[in-house]
Write a structure and sequence with these properties.
66% of the residues lie in helices and 0% in strands. It has seven helices and no strands.
Length: 114
């Protein structure tokens, strides 16, 4: 995960465009965004929403490793270092995950609740 978000998106879009059946306009239409918005993403001026990231995963055909990289790169771009959207979404609806995460936190903090 050494590249920046914009570079990652540009590389994945270009990879998809290099297939004879897709154009950049096709990808933009499938993502439901404007050309300028894609340009801003590729140049690191904007970050995609969780909903757009899900579309990007489908449209760009990202494998599991690439999906995780996308979520982590978007997270790293936020000033407040947000939790990656895929993890946040999973935790919100999963009490067992919350319990396990808290257990890890407490074990790492010598049993102290912070």
């Amino acid at each position: 995960m050494y590249e920046k978000l914009g570079e990652f998106i540009k590389k994945k879009v270009d990879r998809k465009v290099n297939k004879p059946t897709k154009t950049k306009a096709d990808i933009i239409n499938e993502l439901g965004i404007k050309t300028q918005y894609l340009h801003d993403l590729e140049n690191g001026k904007r970050t995609p929403s969780p909903a757009l990231m899900k579309k990007m995963i489908m449209v760009l055909g990202l494998d599991k490793k690439e999906q995780i990289q996308l979520y982590d790169l978007v997270c790293d771009c936020h000033k407040n270092k947000k939790i990656p959207a895929d993890i946040e979404e999973f935790i919100i609806g999963n009490d067992e995950a919350k319990e396990k995460i808290r257990k890890i936190i407490y074990e790492n903090n010598s049993g102290e609740v912070k």
